[in-house]
Structures are given as structure tokens and as C-alpha cells.
């Protein structure tokens, strides 16, 4: 050991001497362990490196200096063993120890001494790095140095250079590998020798060609399986036979025997090819087209000792080739006959390669004149700016325009005579033999452009006509609106006086004392004429609403039997007056039809009334229903009247046409009832028709859609009319407020209410006064006209409905505004009921009683809420 190494003191990481007598004694105890230890430490064959407990090198012996190239002075108290070790190896060791010992170990000196610090024997192989940067493998033993108290005061790393041993091991391994490879080669050679014949047999059995081998005398020595299949001979049967017997072939066209080239091959040692179109005739007589060759078999002295005949079935190939030829012929025929021009171009330079006859006719050139020329002579647009490529086919194929041109692009073509014309070109790209080509399909669109121009002209004419129609439609709609306004106004103006006429006539008819006979006749005429006029007004309004499309229907499942029963009740008094018997066939099952309840009843009543009106005195009317068509019901009304001629049937559904019955009939008629009925039935999805025989009568029928029976509604029914006796039994006095500006209408209601001692009538002449009186008197029911001075009845209704003091009062509209939209508007606004003028006394009184009962119910509910 060098003097430096022997006299070094242990130091901490700062290089300062460790103080304390105890520390010095521990160091002396470590270094004075005997002559044997000194001899080991000073050995040049081992590197002995001792560190303090921090890992800083304190001893660096001669062996370490020789192995690592450092002088002891270079490392003592300066570096740790980690600094002379492979860093990546230290990291790998830390990871391996962490995994092995189950505790995280930091890469560095701790990784080198961790096992030794735990008393675990640790001999490992490390890669040391010399001072010059070279590396060598070392086997290192790591031991913890402890004092008398077993405390670690440092570590000792004793290593030997493992390079020579590594080389010996490598050389030995190399020799072993060489020996192993030699053994393998010998084994492979043996296997090759053993398997050569087997492999040849496998090869012959698995290749896709048939193989026949012969000896030098042309006797068969081998047939592979495919040859057995094609010839029909097995190898056992064919072996030893002449090849001519096993392999008979003929010329496909001449059917003459073809020469087998085996003898030529055996004689001259040359490869012979089979003639084209050769047919092999198998042992069973089946045939197949074949093709291939015959080659000599030579020994090691290059002498011919046999021949091998290799052939294959080419029947499918010939068929494919023929199909390709047929396809090519078909394509050429199409190109020659198609009306569009087809030109192929080479991508480089746009040189014409092929031209079909249509292109020749289109441009006036022959194919010979075009082939080899630039395409721009036909379409100048695609040849301009050739150098920049902006107009070339290459430009179109390399840009987004390629997709557009593939769909068809309009360009200008130039014929041989210099004339120009419009054509459409579609270009596609293709590659043949590594060369890029374009195919252009050209179509002369001159005629199409003329057609398009004419169509554009006609489209403009159509647009002009549509504009005229729109203008006419606007005028018609304005006229229709004016007509509707006129009808509404007329209805209001006619109903107002009719209300007084019919109202007072009904009062006089039921007055006390009763009218005299003479007075009754006069009253009857007044009522008859008044109701006729009202019917005429209503039917005119219905027809106008239907024609304008403003009539709204509510289609729902309606019980047909109930509707017919209600209609029967309404028309039987009319039939009794004329002695007409009414026969209604009973229903076997309850039919439900898709209809508007009010409108289907209106249609049936019209048919029944006509059947009674135009029947013979004492005749009959038969009503029956038949479900003749799935999903439909047929309702027939048959009478025994005079019947209708074909001429009359043709005019039957014309407005105001009574078919000459105006003077002959004692019954009034408007002439538009059937027109309205027909339109109503059609709006409900039905059909109306008639069959008639002169002298026997007529059958009018309607057909409606059937519906499934609806589920029964749950809840209390709406209050219905209350008879006068029930009202009189109620001793409570009711108050009715009537808001009306027309004196005649007010007087009529006063006369009607005078018959009801249980009702006190109040009146107001305008809407504002009506609101004041309603708030002051809190009437049970309010009767409200619509057209009032100041504010309308609907406006007054809304004001009262928003007032908590009057919101609960039922308000009934009584107005001459009788158009369907007027009634809908009033009910939507919140009127309890909407009655139209002129009133029917019974309907008026029933509605009043329903409203009074509703008011009483509301009052009872309110009282209970107040008590609660």
C-alpha cells in the first residue's frame, strides 16, 4: 500500500477530519488488523477501495491504481465508487434491488452498498470506468466496515478485473456455438439427403402442372397426381408403357394426331414446346386443351437419360381469352355505333391516340387525320395557356375541376371546316402500361341548347301567366272578402227586422187570450214567410262559407242511430200534415260515423224534408242504412214521389234550380238546400248520390266513413234545458240584464219575460251602461247584443269577465251576426251561449233556463267557499 493510502484518515463529505478520540481509535483499529490484511490491501492483483460511511473514498490501493489509472491522491476524500461506475448500470441495479427487496433505493452509492449495509453478502459484476474513459468488467465484493459497537464506519469494495475471464468465456461460447452449428449442418445435410426424394415427390404432387417423366426409351417412369387426373392413368398402370399410349394428343382444329416431342427431346437433348391448340384425349375419352413443354433429364455426365413432360389444362384460359376477345369486339362495336364521340389522348402533350366514328362525324375529320395530332385542334379552350397548364387536361385532372369535368363540362368545339359548336365533354383518367391517358366523351349539345332556350322562353311565359293568375287570385280573394262582408252585413240587416217580425208573431201565436181564427191565419203566414226567409239566409250563408273554405267542421265519432232519431222527431210533424208515412229500418248494430254532428243532421234533415215536400199525398218515405263497403255506411232515403227525368238529374245540384217546381209546388224551397247538402257531405269525407225513376220516386243516398266506437266519457253531463214547471217551482226571483240598443228587440224580450214572473228584467241601451248596471245589480244572467253603441258586446264581456264581482255571471249573446265565424268568435271570447236573431222562442227560453241553473250552481259553490 502506498504511503498516502496508509496514512490517510477517514473524512466526512466536507473533507474535514472526523474529530474525537473514539473516531481515531476506530480508524486505527480498522487499519491495524494485521499483516495479512495489509498484504491483501497492498496486493496489485485486487483493487481495494475503502470508504467512509458516506461513501467518500478513504483507501485506494495499488491494485486499484493499476486497474483504474487513478493515483490515490486523485480520488481520496474527493469521489465515491459511484463516480467510477457505469451510471446506467447503477440505475439498473437500484431498480432491480428495489424490486427484489421491496423498498425504494436511490440510484447512487446507496445502490452499491445497500445489501452490505443490511448484512447481506454481495458479490456482483460491475463495469468500472478508467481515468481514460475506457471500461472493463470487474467482479466486486462489497463489505460493510463496523467498529466494536457494530456501527458502520465505512465500506470495503474489493474487485478483480474480469476481462480475461470474460474473454475466455466468450471464446469458449464461440467454440461451443461453432460446434453446435457444425452439428446442425451435419444434421441438416442428413435430413436433406433423406428428404430429397420425398420433397421431390411432394413438389410433383403439389405443383399446379401435370408431370410425366420417361426413361431414355420413352417409357413412363413417373406420373404426378394431376397427370393421373388429366390422362386417366394411375402411375402404377402407366409405369413402363410408352408415353404415346399414355399421352395421346390431337390438333384442335384438324383433329389429326399431334406429334409428341419426347423422342425429339431424347434424341437431341433439346427443350421442345407443344404446338398451340393441342387437345389431350384422356383414357375415358374426355378432352381438354393443354399447353406446356418437354425437357431432357441428364445425369452427372450430361448424358440424356430421360425426358420430363410438363403440361397443364388451359381450357379455362382459352375460354377467358375468347371472352376477352369477345368483350373487346363488343366494346369496339359500341364505340363504333355510339352517338357520342370518344377520343383517347396521351396525357403528355394531349396527343390523340384513338377516335371513334361518331367523333369523326362530329368534327369532320377522319381518324387518320386526328391520330397523332394535339387535342387542342378540336377544342381550342383546352389547349390555351398550354405552358401554364391552366386550360389543359392535365390541369383539370390535377385539380378540383377534374371532378366537375367528369360530370360534364360545356366547351366550344371546332370542326374541320372552321365552324364552331357547343359540346359537352366528360374526361376520365386511366393508366395503361405505366402510361397515363385521358378518355374524353364528347356530345354535340347544339340541339339541346335550342330546346333549353325554348324551355326557358316557355318558363318565362309560364312565370308571366302565374303572375297574372296571382293577380287574378288576389282580385278574386278581395272580391270574395267583399262578398263575405256583404253577406255578413246583409245577414245582420235582414235578421234584425226578422227578429222583431218572427219574435212578435210567436208571442201573438202563444199569447193570452189566444188569437182568433183569422188572426191565426195571418200569424201562420207571417211565421211561414219569416222562417222561409230565415232558411234562405242561413243556406246562402252556409253556401258562401263552404265556397270560401271558411266553414269549419269538427269530425268526431257520431252515433248514427241517435242522429236519425233526432231527424225523425223533427220531420214527422211535417210528414203528418201531408199524410206521408215514415218508415225507419231499425239498426242491428250501433254504427259510429265520422261526421260533424250538427252538419250531418242538417244534411239528413234536408233529404228527409225534400222526400216529404216533393212526395205524393199519402205516399211514404223509407230510411235504411247498409254497411255495403268495408269502412263505409250507406244511408238511403227513398220516396214515392213523381221521380226525376235524366235532364232534371243533370241539373239537380245547381244553386237556385228547383227543376220547375217553383209554381207547381205548394211548398216553398230555396233551391240551394241540395247544393249545401252535397258540399257538407263531401267535406265530411262522404259521397252523395241519387237514383230516380219517373212515376215511381227517387232514392237519395249519402255514404260516410265508419269509425270505431269511442270510449265512454267520464263525468257529469252538461245541464240541459229545464221545463217551465221546474222553474216556476223555484220561488227565488231571478234578475236578467238585457243590453240591447234596438227598441223592437228589447220590446220582444220584455214581452217574453213578462210571462215569467220569476224573472226580473233590467235593460241597458249601450255597452258602457250595461257594464255599470251589471256591477251595480249583480244580475243572475246577462243577455248581450254584439253590435252596441260605444263598445261592442265582446269588449263588454271581456271587461265583466276580468272583474271578480261579475266574472261568475253567465252571459248569453243574442245577435244578428250569424256567420259561422261570428259564432265561433263569440264562444271563444267566453259567451255561455250564442243565440242568433231572429230568435226561436222555445230555444230562447230553454237557453235562459240553462243559464239560470248554471248561475244558481255557481252561487252555491261560492257560498260554500265563503263558509269554509
UniProtKB/TrEMBL annotation:
GO terms for biological process: regulation of DNA-templated transcription. Residues 122-174, 274-326, 407-457 form the PAC domain. It is a multi-pass membrane protein. SMART domains: HATPase_c (SM00387), HisKA (SM00388), PAC (SM00086), PAS (SM00091), REC (SM00448). Residues 489-708 form the Histidine kinase domain. The modification 4-aspartylphosphate is found at residue 785. It catalyses: ATP + protein L-histidine = ADP + protein N-phospho-L-histidine. It is found in: Cell inner membrane. InterPro entries: CheY-like_superfamily (IPR011006), HATPase_C_sf (IPR036890), HATPase_dom (IPR003594), His_kinase_dom (IPR005467), HisK_dim/P_dom (IPR003661), HisK_dim/P_sf (IPR036097), PAC (IPR001610), PAS (IPR000014). Its EC number is 2.7.13.3. It comes from the Bacteria. GO terms for molecular function: phosphorelay sensor kinase activity. Its main location: membrane. Gene3D superfamilies: 1.10.287.130, 3.40.50.2300, Histidine kinase-like ATPase, C-terminal domain (3.30.565.10), PAS domain (3.30.450.20). GO terms for cellular component: plasma membrane. Keywords: Kinase, Phosphoprotein, Transferase. It holds the Pfam family HATPase_c. PANTHER family: TWO-COMPONENT HISTIDINE PROTEIN KINASE. This is histidine kinase. It comes from Rugosibacter aromaticivorans.
Amino acid at each position: 500500500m502506498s504511503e498516502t493510502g496508509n496514512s490517510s484518515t477517514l473524512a466526512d463529505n466536507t473533507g474535514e477530519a472526523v474529530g474525537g478520540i473514539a473516531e481515531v481509535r476506530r480508524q486505527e483499529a480498522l487499519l491495524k488488523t494485521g499483516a495479512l490484511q495489509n498484504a491483501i490491501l497492498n496486493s496489485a492483483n485486487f483493487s481495494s477501495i475503502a470508504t467512509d460511511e458516506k461513501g467518500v473514498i478513504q483507501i485506494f490501493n495499488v491494485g486499484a491504481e493499476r486497474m483504474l489509472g487513478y493515483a490515490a491522491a486523485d480520488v481520496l476524500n474527493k469521489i465515491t465508487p459511484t463516480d467510477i461506475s457505469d451510471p446506467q448500470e447503477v440505475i439498473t441495479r437500484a431498480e432491480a434491488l428495489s424490486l427484489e427487496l421491496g423498498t425504494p433505493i436511490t440510484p447512487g452509492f446507496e445502490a452499491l452498498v445497500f445489501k452490505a449495509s443490511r448484512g447481506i453478502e454481495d458479490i456482483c459484476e460491475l463495469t468500472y470506468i478508467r481515468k481514460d474513459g475506457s471500461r472493463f468488467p470487474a467482479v466486486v465484493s462489497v463489505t460493510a466496515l463496523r467498529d466494536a459497537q457494530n456501527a458502520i464506519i465505512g465500506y470495503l469494495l474489493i474487485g478483480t478485473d474480469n476481462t480475461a475471464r470474460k474473454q475466455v468465456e466468450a471464446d469458449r461460447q464461440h467454440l461451443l456455438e461453432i460446434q453446435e452449428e457444425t452439428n446442425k449442418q451435419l444434421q441438416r445435410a442428413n435430413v436433406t439427403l433423406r428428404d430429397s426424394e420425398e420433397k421431390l415427390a411432394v413438389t410433383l404432387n403439389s405443383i399446379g402442372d401435370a408431370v410425366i417423366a420417361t426413361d431414355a426409351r420413352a417409357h413412363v417412369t413417373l406420373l404426378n397426381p394431376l397427370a393421373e387426373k388429366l390422362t386417366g392413368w394411375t402411375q402404377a398402370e402407366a409405369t413402363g408403357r410408352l408415353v404415346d399410349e399414355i399421352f395421346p394428343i390431337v390438333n384442335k382444329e384438324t383433329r389429326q394426331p399431334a406429334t409428341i416431342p419426347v423422342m425429339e427431346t431424347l434424341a437431341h437433348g433439346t427443350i421442345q414446346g407443344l404446338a398451340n391448340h393441342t387437345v389431350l384425349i384422356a383414357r375415358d375419352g374426355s378432352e381438354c386443351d393443354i399447353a406446356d413443354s418437354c425437357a431432357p433429364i441428364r445425369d452427372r455426365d450430361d448424358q440424356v437419360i430421360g425426358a420430363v413432360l410438363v403440361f397443364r389444362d388451359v381450357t379455362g384460359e382459352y375460354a377467358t381469352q375468347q371472352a376477352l376477345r369477345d368483350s373487346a369486339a363488343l366494346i369496339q362495336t359500341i364505340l363504333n355505333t355510339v352517338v357520342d364521340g370518344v377520343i383517347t389522348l396521351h396525357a403528355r402533350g394531349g396527343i390523340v391516340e384513338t377516335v371513334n366514328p361518331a367523333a369523326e362525324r362530329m368534327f369532320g375529320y377522319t381518324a387518320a387525320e386526328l391520330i397523332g395530332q394535339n387535342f387542342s385542334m378540336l377544342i381550342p379552350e383546352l389547349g390555351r395557356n398550354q405552358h401554364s397548364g391552366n386550360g389543359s387536361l392535365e390541369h383539370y385532372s390535377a385539380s378540383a375541376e377534374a371532378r366537375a369535368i367528369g360530370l360534364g363540362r360545356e366547351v366550344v368545339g371546332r370542326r374541320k371546316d372552321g365552324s364552331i359548336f357547343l359540346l359537352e365533354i366528360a374526361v376520365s383518367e386511366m393508366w395503361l402500361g405505366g402510361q397515363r391517358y385521358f378518355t374524353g366523351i364528347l356530345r354535340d349539345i347544339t340541339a339541346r341548347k335550342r330546346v333549353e332556350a325554348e324551355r326557358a322562353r316557355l318558363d318565362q311565359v309560364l312565370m308571366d301567366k302565374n303572375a297574372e293568375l296571382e293577380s287574378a287570385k288576389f282580385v278574386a280573394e278581395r272580391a270574395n272578402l267583399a262578398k263575405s262582408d256583404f253577406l255578413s252585413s246583409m245577414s245582420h240587416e235582414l235578421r234584425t227586422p226578422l227578429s222583431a217580425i218572427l219574435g212578435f208573431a210567436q208571442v201573438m201565436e202563444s199569447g193570452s187570450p189566444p188569437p182568433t181564427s183569422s188572426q191565426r191565419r195571418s200569424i201562420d203566414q207571417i211565421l211561414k214567410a219569416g222562417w222561409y226567409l230565415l232558411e234562405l239566409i242561413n243556406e246562402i250563408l252556409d253556401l258562401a262559407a263552404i265556397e270560401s273554405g271558411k266553414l269549419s267542421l269538427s269530425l268526431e265519432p257520431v252515433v248514427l242511430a241517435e242522429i236519425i232519431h233526432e231527424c225523425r222527431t223533427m220531420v214527422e210533424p211535417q210528414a203528418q200534415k201531408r199524410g206521408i208515412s215514415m218508415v225507419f229500418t231499425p239498426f242491428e248494430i250501433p254504427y259510429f260515423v265520422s261526421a260533424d254532428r250538427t252538419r250531418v243532421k242538417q244534411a239528413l234533415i234536408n233529404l228527409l224534408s225534400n222526400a216529404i215536400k216533393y212526395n205524393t199525398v199519402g205516399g211514404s218515405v223509407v230510411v235504411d242504412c247498409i254497411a255495403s263497403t268495408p269502412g263505409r255506411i250507406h244511408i238511403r232515403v227513398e220516396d214515392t214521389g213523381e221521380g226525376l227525368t235524366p235532364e232534371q238529374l243533370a241539373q239537380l245540384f245547381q244553386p237556385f234550380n228547383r227543376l220547375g217546381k217553383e209554381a207547381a209546388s205548394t211548398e216553398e224551397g230555396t233551391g240551394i238546400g241540395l247544393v249545401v247538402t252535397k258540399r257538407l257531405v263531401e267535406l265530411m269525407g262522404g259521397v252523395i248520390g241519387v237514383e230516380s225513376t219517373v212515376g215511381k220516386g227517387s232514392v237519395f243516398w249519402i255514404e260516410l266513413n265508419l269509425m270505431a266506437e269511442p270510449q265512454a266519457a267520464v263525468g257529469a253531463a252538461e245541464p240541459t234545458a229545464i221545463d217551465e214547471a221546474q222553474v216556476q217551482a223555484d220561488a227565488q226571483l231571478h234578475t236578467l240584464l238585457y243590453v240591447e240598443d234596438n227598441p223592437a228587440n228589447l220590446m220582444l224580450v220584455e214581452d217574453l219575460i213578462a210571462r215569467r214572473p220569476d224573472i226580473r228584467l233590467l235593460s241597458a241601451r249601450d255597452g258602457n251602461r250595461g257594464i255599470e248596471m251589471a256591477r251595480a245589480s249583480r244580475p243572475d244572467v246577462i243577455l248581450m247584443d254584439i253590435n252596441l253603441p260605444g263598445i261592442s258586446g265582446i269588449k263588454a264581456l271581456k271587461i265583466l269577465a276580468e272583474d271578480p264581482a261579475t266574472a261568475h255571471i253567465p252571459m248569453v249573446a243574442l245577435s244578428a251576426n250569424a256567420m259561422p265565424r261570428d259564432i265561433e268568435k263569440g264562444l271563444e271570447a267566453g259567451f255561455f251561449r250564442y243565440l242568433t236573431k231572429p230568435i226561436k222562442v222555445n230555444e230562447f227560453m230553454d237557453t235562459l233556463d240553462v243559464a239560470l241553473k248554471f248561475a244558481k250552481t255557481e252561487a252555491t259553490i261560492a257560498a260554500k267557499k265563503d263558509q269554509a
